[in-house]
Every structure is written in C-alpha cells, then in structure tokens.
Amino acid sequence: MTTRRDGPPGPRTTKPGFARGPYRRGPAQNQRGAASVAAASGDHVVLYGWHPVAQALANEGRKLHRLLATENAMARLTEEIGTLRIDPEMVRPSAINALLGPDAVHQGLYLEADPLPGPDLDDLGDDVLLLALDQITDPHNVGAIVRTAAAFGVAGIITTARHSPNATGVLAKSASGGLEHVPLIVVRNLSDALVDLGKRGFTRIGLDSDADTALDSIGPKRPAVIVLGAEGKGLRQRTRDNCDVLARIPFSGEIRSINVSNAAAITLYALSPRG
Q: Which is a Pfam family this sequence falls into (predicted)?
C-alpha cells in the first residue's frame, strides 16, 4: 500500500538528583551529548521513557547494563515494579537530556541493554500471524507498528538487515514497550522469506492502495503474513510478486492514502477473528 510519513511522576523521597538506600549516585553533571550515546553503549540498545524501560525491566529475557533514573521516576519504579533487576544510578533530568538531547521525552528513565534475539522463521508455529516490513525506514512508524502488533498478538515482525531502523532509541520509545512482546525477525532478503513462508502454507497478503481486492473481503486467515510497503514507495515489485493477494483498504473519503502504521492497525483489526 502506498503510504506517507506523517505518567504522572512519583512522590518525592529524597533531595532532587541524589540517591538514598541501595541506589548509586549517578553522574548528575554528565554532559557527554547525544552524539556519544552509540559510542557509550557499544553493541547495546538505548531505551528511554516509562513504558519501554518498565517493560524491559520486567522482561527476564532482556539483559540489562545501565539504568539512569531521576528521583521521581525511581520512586514510581519502586512503587509499581518493586525490586529491580539492576541497580539504578540516580541522576538529575539534565544528565539524561545530555545523553539523548533536550527533545527526547524520557520521563526520567534511560536504560542501556542488550538487543533481544529474534527467532528464526522456522521456529515459528504454523498457525500464527506475522507482519513483514518492506524497507520501512521511519523509526516512528516502525515503532508504532510494533506497538499495534503487540496489541493484536502478532507472533513476529519480519524486517530486512538493510533499509530498516534499529530497535533502539526513537523506535523503542514509539513501540511503548511492544519490543518486549513482539520479536523482530531480521532476514537478508524479504522476497526469499516470503517464498519460504508460502511453501509452509502462509497466506501472503500485500497492502496496496491500487489493488482490486478489498481488505474486508479477505477475512481472518491463519497462518498469514501481512506485507506493508515503504513510506511513499509502497511494495517493491518482487515483493508484490511473492504475495498471494494484494488488498486495499476500502476508504470512503477523499483521502485514499494513510500513514503505514495506521494502515497496519486497520489491517490487523480487519483480519482478526471476532468473538
């Protein structure tokens, strides 16, 4: 389908920016700057904001390395989660701003962790629903798709090693914790992956605004993979050729093209069983 781009803090428990009890005092005056995040974290991913960090802390499969938290955020973590799997560094908000930049909505939380391993396609069951992303590069869009996929019980999201954003930073924030529930399955070639899924009996449904088939005429199918095209370009020709059906969302208004993350949400709802 052709697309276009488009908590309340916890109570105070200590003086601002300093830790008591088991918490380590963090680098409140750290001014390394956002450009140094990648160098500081090495192969780690960076998660920030309440939902991404809280969900990662609750995920035993996620290896944690460093947690920075403001006083209010730490109080909220303690109240809602209890004992943490990692000792946090208590910092002032400016320390996290220095790492992420002033525009990042971090809600007082910054976490460095290992990326989550993705399963092989062969490891997935034969009665599941998957998403496949054909070179969608906007991390906001991919993150929003991950969040929606988690809400609809999608078993995995297929992405390519190239022309895809990493599961860190903005993508993780937009996913709002969804990365802990929907694995990303990275493949070298999307068309080859679709061929393999077709041999296993998956119905391969490509979204295309010019398709003859209306989405609501397809109905729920399992196993199935929904293929979403890149912003502005839609599905590549070889990707289209390896879909069993191309479907369009039957819009009734004057605008016939929407953001790919919105299209994903509509499609997942339309292809989900009722009752």
A: SpoU_methylase
